[in-house]
Write a structure and sequence with these properties.
The chain has one domain: RutC-like (60s Ribosomal Protein L30, Chain: A, 2-Layer Sandwich), CATH 3.30.1330. The radius of gyration is 14 Å and the shape is globular. Helix 1 runs parallel beside helix 2. By secondary structure, it is an alpha+beta fold. The two termini are 24 Å apart. It contains two helices and eight strands. The relative contact order is 0.22. The protein has a six-stranded mixed β-sheet, with helices on one face. A two-stranded antiparallel ribbon has the order 7-8.
Length: 135
């Protein structure tokens, strides 16, 4: 059964889509921008600041669904400038300290609100970690 996930802890969708959709034990989080949940404005002047805000937004949505970042199995990162790859990785690594999820990173010509970064993810709630191994 499909359940729409919505939380005031993350910015609302910018169009006719859900922040996330939960089906059974899977959560599909829509692309998240570095937006403040209350103002809808881009947060941060650096790619590290913007990356952190995106991850905070994803975390809020996952928590609303009953998941955590430890349940994430796949992330896609969209960057306006692939030269930011190393800086993004530094911040990203702080949020995925256990076994990291699978990931793709692509450079795009433009993102909504002219953000520098956007991420989406898939989480599986039954997935977790014990002694640094997925179960």
């Amino acid at each position: 059964m499909k359940q729409i996930i919505a939380t005031a802890g993350a910015p609302p969708a910018l169009g006719p889509y859900a922040q996330a959709v939960k089906v059974n034990d899977m959560v599909f989080v829509s692309g998240q921008l570095p937006l403040d949940a209350r103002s809808g404005q881009i947060v941060g002047d650096t790619i590290c600041d913007q990356t952190e805000q995106v991850l905070i937004n994803m975390r809020e949505i996952l928590e609303e669904s009953g998941a955590t970042l430890d349940h994430v199995v796949k992330v896609t990162i969209y960057l306006k400038d692939l030269n930011d790859f190393d800086e993004v990785n530094k911040t990203y690594a702080d949020y995925f300290r256990n076994l990291p999820p699978a990931r793709a990173t692509v450079e795009v010509s433009r993102l909504p609100k002219d953000a520098a970064i956007e991420m989406d993810c898939i989480a599986v709630i039954s997935a977790g970690y014990v002694d640094n191994e997925i179960y």
